[in-house]
Amino acid sequence: MTEEEKFLISLKRRRRGSLERAIDLYTPYVTVVVYNVIGAVMSKEDVEEVVSDVFISLWKNAGNLDIQKGCIRTYLGAAARNCAKNKLRQVRAYEELDENIVSDGAEPYESIEAKEQRRLLLELINELGEPDSEIFLRYYYYDERISRISAAMGIGSSTIKTKLSRGRKKIKEMLIKRRYCNE
Asked: Are 114 and 100 in contact, with CB atoms under 8 Å apart?
């Protein structure tokens, strides 16, 4: 039996010290994964909170770990990405709620029109599908640099640029098509 399997068994059985050992061994890895997803748009404290959530999730789901698969690093990487994306969604939902509550002083119809345009644009971006929609949100919504998006997603910079260019053309075509369909 390997050390990894022994470690997984101790986690699965929730033995004392197993969570602390996981935290000691994998915090740097989990932090990098989380930072690559949210580090450019959120604070250090937010990153730390998500890292903590990942280890809480590990402890809560320890009984469901598959000893046969035997790779806790893979589990933690996936959990870190999912927790970070959930945090992004929460922040985005809060920002949208905040936008609806606070008025910018514009006329009501202008505010409604601007919100409708943002909603339509987000809908079209989502229609691009993954990974294109994530690239668009990171680049245009969160103002991330192409190099950071490339590193975080494991996609080459030139591919990111190509996807952005093609995505802009697709969105333009979708807007034109919707305009003609609605007339």
From this structure: no
